[in-house]
Design brief:
Blueprint lengths: L1 H17 L14 E8 L5 E7 L7 H4 L6 E2 L1 H9 L6 E4 L10
Parallel strand pairs: 1-4
Antiparallel strand pairs: 1-2, 2-3
Length: about 100
């Protein structure tokens, strides 16, 4: 888990440094915000889902869509590296916390 946190923080540092831009600078592009979900599969491998942030709650079908699932930290790093610099990535905690699901 510490390795996963280290990798994610390392990947997000360039985006965080952009937040400290001079306020007089005009943004070069529109910021798109994504939600990052993470879980371990039955083999203990980390899996991820990156979904566009919307105003509706994501369903299990959205999050665990097998065609969109990213398998492993290396593939996550590759996916994040392809995002525009203005992208925001929000690591979501358990979306069902406090529910009976």
């Amino acid at each position: 888990m510490k390795t996963l946190l280290f990798v994610l923080i390392s990947l997000m540092l360039p985006a965080l440094s952009m937040c400290s831009q001079d306020k007089n600078e005009r943004p070069h592009s529109v910021t798109i915000t994504y939600e990052l979900y993470s879980w371990r599969d039955s083999d203990g491998q980390w899996c991820f889902s990156i979904l566009t942030m919307t105003d509706r709650a994501k369903t299990a079908e959205d999050i665990f869509d097998k065609q969109e699932t990213i398998h492993g930290v290396g593939k996550l790093k590759e996916s994040i590296s392809k995002m525009p610099r203005s992208t925001e990535l929000v690591w979501m905690k358990n979306p069902w916390e406090g529910t009976s699901v």
